[in-house]
Amino acid sequence: MTVHGEAGPLPLDLVVRAGGLMRELCASATERVVLHGDLHHDNILRATREPWLAIDPHGIVGDPGYEVGALLFNPDPDDRDESLTALVPQRVEQLADGLAMPVDRVVAWGFVKAVTSDVWSAEGWSPVADRSPISRALDVARLLLPRLP
Known about the structure:
Helix content: 40-55%
Shape: globular
Strand content: 5-15%
Structural class: mainly alpha
Number of helices: 6
Order of helices and strands: HEEEEHHHHH
């Protein structure tokens, strides 16, 4: 992974906070389960044998909260429409309620996954690149930041 530091396309303080928070979340997990690992809207299809089918599983083991993050900034994270970002608080509540997961844990995993998404996008970034790697995921991270425990 390329490290850009202060000169990079992402706020370094958010990246550092996400890294520390991910370690805390993993250490405080009350259970470990088999996870999809890349669960987002494009990997969930309507199916005939079941109402929904998850495709492209990565098969990792970890905290169940890991999966909720991508659902907060997908689908189409490149679309930075503010009305989509405005749905995040309601989605946090729905996920917490539907999964019987504490709201603060959904918020924390949402923040971690949102920052991580743009870190992955920034890997090929350079100061002379034509396109910013920043997406709605970073907008979601900034929205969730004040709600972090």
